[in-house]
Predict the structure.
Amino acid sequence: MFRLITGIPGPSGFGSASTAEQVTQGIDASKLTAIITGGASGIGLETARVLALRNARVIIGARNMEAANEAKQLILQDNEKAKIHIMKLDLASLKSIKSFAQNFIALNLPLNILINNAGIMFCPYGLSEDGFEIQFATNHLGHFYLTNLLLEKIKKTAKSTGIEGRIVNLSSVAHIHTYNRGIKFENINDKRSYCDKRAYGQSKLANILHASELSRRLQAEGASVTVNSVHPGLIMTNLFKYSGVFMKILKFFTCILWKNVPQGAATTCYAALHPSMEGVTGKYLADCNEFKPSTYARDEILAERLWDFSNKIINAAQN
Ligand SMILES: NC(=O)c1ccc[n+]([C@@H]2O[C@H](COP(=O)([O-])OP(=O)(O)OC[C@H]3O[C@@H](n4cnc5c(N)ncnc54)[C@H](OP(=O)(O)O)[C@@H]3O)[C@@H](O)[C@H]2O)c1
């Protein structure tokens, strides 16, 4: 908390006040291709801008192509050499995710970095196109499925180039505030027990469990791909559109804890690009430093159960 408020750097040399540009200063990413989900706004847009500034080729996956095109133009205004592509991706639709992955693979590009950034928060109860509770579907299931579909490509790229692949899941400190047993496996879509805050916390817990389980699996097979999850900090973005007055009051009383967007994208960019993160996997980062997440987030049995559960319900939805 002291470091968060003062911005004093942690062991990595960076802290809450560091920006995405600062943590990637001097890094040449010209050999790298990255996909960023939800890269048309907020933290994702800044991440895309900074990765492109470091000469990476960046593919923004977005559900709103008009907003994605505006984001692309904005990045190009700042840096006319930016290699930015936009592709349609709706994480609340398994069909859209599959077609995004197929379209990307058809491009025959390498894939070094996957940033699972898109998210929604505190929205009223709703179901995805495939019938899953919308926050769990968008924040976790969609990214879980997307990662599975792109994993072979990431592994092959790492093997053929000798450059480690990196997957970064955007989680949140809100993963602490979840349902009683962590994940509501028995009634994931239940409307009566739905709580918008806990559903968000559950989905962000799932982001960490997904990263740690995938990390263990990749390590077991000796793949040169790391997977980490990050809490970007508190940043006022469109994410808060469902929070209204409550969040404005909270921000007023906690203004000292909030970051701006360039600071909010720093931990993602650090995890995706920084040489100190080479070989670091299965970790949870905040303010560009390793942090210990909640007990549920460190529960390997829960992570394995979530993995099997996610596969099972995705397969069932497709049959
Ligand atoms: N801001 C914070 O304080 C904070 C704190 C902790 C964690 N995070 C995490 O950081 C990530 C980025 O959030 P942000 O603050 O940058 O919010 P944001 O500005 O609202 O960005 C979220 C992005 O996700 C996209 N998205 C939402 N649903 C989607 C779907 N079904 N398919 C494809 N894209 C979808 C949004 O697109 P649309 O514009 O079309 O909705 C938007 O571009 C999220 O995962 C969030 O949970 C943020």
About this structure: Residues 37-38, 40-44, 62-64, 67, 89-92, 117-121, 138, 170, 172, 231-232, 234-235, 237-239 surround NAP (CB under 6 Å).
